[in-house]
Amino acid sequence: MGRVEGKVALITGVASGIGKATALLFAREGARVVGADRNAVGGTVTIEEIRSAGGTATFVQSDISREADCENMVRVAVQTYGRLDILHNHAGILHPKDGPITELTAEAIDETFAINCKGMLFTVKYAARQMIAQGGGAIVNTGSDLAYIGLQNLTAYTASKSAVVGVTRTLAVELAPHKIRVNAVCPGFTFSGMNVALQNDRAFMDQMRLDYLIPELGQPNDVAYAVLYLASDEAHFTTGTALVVDGGHTIK
Ligand SMILES: NC(=O)c1ccc[n+]([C@@H]2O[C@H](COP(=O)([O-])OP(=O)(O)OC[C@H]3O[C@@H](n4cnc5c(N)ncnc54)[C@H](O)[C@@H]3O)[C@@H](O)[C@H]2O)c1
User: Fold this and answer.
1) What is the CATH number of domain 8-245?
2) What is the best residue among 115, 194, 208, 221 to mutate for testing ligand 1's pocket, by most ligand atoms within 8 Å of CB?
3) What distance in angstroms lies between residue 94's CA and the mean position of ligand 1's atoms?
4) Mean pLDDT in each 10-residue stretch from start to end of the chain (252 residues)?
5) Model's pTM, two decimal places?
């Protein structure tokens, strides 16, 4: 019996990195996975990997900065599997023009917030409607350890992820009467497609390793297991919280 056996889970950002690891893990743990991403090639590969391992999954191409796509992802989940039990709001970006506050552009702020905040909220909007109609559910939003500590030159990103953590509490209060739990997972540096440029910055990586209690830094599965816990019934008494998975970065 898997830890999310029989549940229908919508996961955004499944084409690579943490979202992909989470989709594969949820499927291994018995969930029927609806994977969404704007990258159709990568997303389809993830879904095929699940299916060839004997799991159940469907891909829906979506750009979460568009409200219609957020609504459609939920529609596909319900049309395909009849319900929606879990939403993992994971897709997000680190804008290439994010940077020092003295150079920050409206474009970097707007594009960051359109995906990291607006997309998250619109996905919850439609998922919550479905979960309310069903009588419950679990939502896990991806924040960041940068909601808790300062790191220079990531201003738009940090603003957006602080918003995710803050609004997770609001949503937990608002949706509790409907038996919907809402939590956040806050990864520290995790090797993924999002930070390839940083991975190639030797000075940055050396400093990261000094700043972390666990200098190996994170792998996608480290975060996926935290998401699995928060989304599963094992966490039935946990809502409105943020689980920091950061190798001790924030407490050091
Ligand atoms: N990797 C880290 O160190 C780290 C740390 C903290 C938080 N996060 C969070 O993790 C998420 C990124 O995941 P990752 O690190 O595996 O990176 P990643 O780049 O490997 O994966 C992100 C996925 O999101 C998809 N995506 C981006 N914009 C989208 C959109 N508008 N609509 C649909 N899909 C979209 C991408 O195509 C990609 O498949 C973000 O929310 C980020 O804030 C990552």
Assistant:
1) 3.40.50.720
2) 194
3) 8
4) 97 98 98 98 98 98 98 98 98 94 97 98 98 98 97 94 98 98 98 93 95 97 98 98 98 94
5) 0.98
